[in-house]
Amino acid sequence: MNRETIPDIALSGVEKRFETRERTVVALERTDLRIRGGELIALVGPSGCGKTTMLRMIGGLLTPSSGEIRIGERNLWRGAERDSSALRELGVVFQDANLFPWFSIEDNVALPLRLRGMPKAERRAKARELCELVGIGGFEKAWPRHLSGGMRQRAAIARALSYEPHILLMDEPFGALDAITRDQMNLELQRIWLAQRCTIVFVTHSIAEAVFLGDRVILLSPRPGRIDMELEVPFERPRRTALQAVPEFQGLVQRLRDRLEAIIT
């Protein structure tokens, strides 16, 4: 995938309010943000700060209360209506892999292609290719219940990549994994991203994970969420796990952690 053909994501004055009987809750305050095509950006912040809300609005899953979200030259939202051509740029991975238990891994990965009318032989070949890409080659015929949590997440990533989206939105995809598996999945995600060169917007509670993965880290404030800090990450790729022991890495993590502690106290 050529980075020059990948659209930017631009948020202009985006806000999300939730109305209840008692009051109005502002989940995300008026926010401006540009995400460059092919960038891997990490969103961090305290619980309830609007990270997932922002991701869901970019993904076409939640209507902004005000403001504009553009995918390239297209306005994703026109009121409560979504631009279907902009939506086709997007793939989404959640914390839960959400695989259908009655489908094999191959059929789960190929499902978006089936819904788009791709012939059976072609979509199964594509599913096998993607299983190899994400490191679960040989498990195409397995049932989801026979795979570990990390392997199910690999399958979920393969499914999201099946129709070659330019933008991959990931909402704490490794949050439920053990520490060793999580480190492995961070390395794998970086490898997949370097191979695919799509844009990734990655939500996490882990500051170290954000710094390890991101070209840029965006820190959101407590509710009402707003961008408090943007941090460029200078380390070359591919990044290895040993990077986390380097003083410069630890310094960036500590800088973000100090700022987070300052805004929540």
Quick synopsis:
This protein is α/β, with parallel strands linked by helices. It contains eight helices and twelve strands. 35% of the residues lie in helices and 25% in strands.
Describe the structure.
The chain has 265 residues and is α/β, with parallel strands linked by helices. It is 35% helix and 25% strand. The chain has 8 helices and 12 strands. A 6-stranded mixed beta sheet has the order 8-9-10-3-11-12, with helices on both faces. It has a 4-stranded antiparallel beta sheet with strand order 2-1-4-5, covered by helices on one side. Helix 3 (105-115) crosses helix 4 (120-134) and helix 3 (105-115) packs parallel to helix 5 (149-161). The protein starts with 8 loop residues before the first strand and ends with a helix. 39% of the residues are buried.
Percent range for β-strand residues: 15-25%
SSE succession = EEEHEEEEHEHHHEHEHEEH
**Percent range of helical residues:** 25-40%
Low-confidence stretches: none
Using DSSP, what is the number of strands?
Answer: 12
Briefly note the structural class of the backbone.
alpha/beta
Distance between the termini: 44 Å
Report the biggest beta sheet as strand number plus sense, adding barrel if it closes: 6 strands, mixed
Q: How many alpha or pi helices? A: 8
Physical arrangement of strands within the biggest beta sheet: 8-9-10-3-11-12
Query: Any idea what the radius of gyration is?
Result: 19 Å
Shape: globular
Mean pLDDT: 92
